[in-house]
Amino acid sequence: MSGQVLHDAEKLRQAMVSALIERGSLSDSRWIDAFHAIPRHHFVPRFLVTEDRVVREVSCLRDEAQWLRLVYADEPLVMAADDLGAISSSSQPSLMAAMLGSLRCSGGERVLEIGTGSGYNAALMCHGLSDSEVASVDIDADLVSNARSRLAELGYFPDLANGDGEAGYPQAAPFDRLIATCSVGRVPVSWLSQMRAGGLVLVNLYQALGPGALVLLEADARSEASGHFESYRAGFMPSRNISRAQAVSLLPDHEHRASAESRPADIGGALLNDDAFRMLSAFYVDAQQVMLLPEDSPEELWLVGQDGSWACLIEEEGSPPTVRQGGPVSLWDRVEAAHRLWISLGQPDRHAFGLTVSATGQHTIWHEDKRHQLFSL
Questions:
Q1: Which CATH fold topology does 247-344 show?
Q2: CB-neighbour burial class of residue 294 (10 A; exposed 0-12, middle 13-18, buried 19+)
Q3: Fewer Cβ close by (within 10 Å): the C or N end of the chain?
């Protein structure tokens, strides 16, 4: 890499850090120093971009200027993908900064990262703490190998392992902090058993209806953990233990659509744009959202579940919304039930909700205080 490219990379990195500080994503001096010091471009020599529905590779070998500009933009970078979307990525820097800040590290904490990915986040933690205090696990052996090499080139030698992150890393336990850069359907009890009392677990709960349910749990001596959802959204790729299907493949055929009766809907689809309500409703509704615009017809908002459940909401200008539903679960009924609960609680934001995970794996959602339980997942 030429001296000019290295100079340009340095300028772009410092500009990125300044922007993260200005918008409030980065405030802890420990992580400010780390973002200043660690070159993101070192960990993502190539990635994929989609333009006009065409996927192409951007790399340091093809267009150095564009590659550097995108590396130091506040955007996630997709390193590998399949037909359903990204399967490996470098997270958005502002999200990484916010999550590292949420860990409330003061120095000396032993941290386990679930999802090594490119190794960039591990490098930030090595700089902000020390490499002897950082362990990271990834299910992809090639990612672990590449990350180990790139970290070593910068002089960092954390404990990296290839394995199923949902099992944690018992060989290196106990930990004071755990940060997951993939989403999981449920918080594994194996993680809680590997935490010291008072240790913090930061994890994104997978929601088919949409990303965002990032929760910070504090473990106790009984391997139970409780904590509030974070005020900021975080979306991560689901762990490979979560089965995925393209939403459009779950749409019912015309016969099933036509046989379902239509009824007035109590709420419109715009409410799902509310960040807090969408998070709450996603706990009620295990379904993906699809927007369709049939020719010469009003827009249709679809919810489709892998069990064959579906709902189609239609909102014509000047008319109240109507909904058709089919399958074993009336999905829009569930959305409306979530809305009634949200209204009864005073329309709280996401941070007002919390989660308790018992040592046996029971997940309970609560409001304001863990004694005010709402429902179990």
A1: Double Stranded RNA Binding Domain (3.30.160)
A2: exposed
A3: N
Q: 195 has which bridge partners?
A: 175
Cross-strand pairs, 304? 288, 310
DSSP secondary-structure letter at 232? S
Task: List CB contacts of 262: < 8 A, sequence separation 6 or more.
Answer: 322, 323, 324
- pTM above 0.90? yes
- Extract the residue ranges of the chain whose pLDDT is less than 50: none
Interatomic CA distance for residues 228 and 223, integer angstroms: 17
Query: What is the torsion angle, in degrees rounded to the nearest 10, for the CA atoms of residue 106, residue 111, residue 113 and residue 118?
Result: 70
Q: Give CA–CA dist 323/266, Å, rounded.
A: 9
Rounded to 5 degrees, φ, ψ at 140 are -95, 110
Residues 253-272: pLDDT tens digits? 888 888 898 999 999 999 99
Which helix (H) or strand (E) segment is 29 a member of?
helix 29-37
- Angstrom distances, CA of residue 238 to CA of 87, 88, 181, 193: 8, 10, 9, 22
How is the chain split into domains, by residue range? Answer: 3-163, 247-344
The predicted pLDDT at position 80 comes to 81
What is the topology classification, in CATH, of domain 3-163? Rossmann fold (3.40.50)
Per-residue model confidence as pLDDT tens digits over 52-82: 778 888 888 778 889 999 999 999 999 886 6
Q: CA 279, CA 210: separation in Å to the nearest integer?
A: 8
- Enzyme catalytic residues: 91
Tokens read off for 101? 């800040």
| Four-point Cα dihedral 257, 260, 262, 265, nearest 10 | -80
Characterize the bridge pairing of strands 213-219 and 225-228.
antiparallel
Could you tell me if 302 and 251 are in contact, meaning their C-beta atoms sit under 8 angstroms apart? yes
Note if the bond before 170 is cis, omega within 30 degrees: no
Cβ contact 239:165 at 8 Å: yes
Tell me how far apart the alpha carbons of residues 218 and 198 are, in angstroms, rounded to a whole number: 6
CA–CA separation, 154 and 127 (whole Å): 10
Structure tokens belonging to residue 152: 């070593």
Q: Which residues pair with 111 in a beta bridge?
A: 134, 177
The DSSP bridge partners found for residue 229 are 215
**Phi then psi for 337, rounded to 5 degrees?**
-65, -40
Domains 3-163 and 247-344 fall in the same CATH topology = no
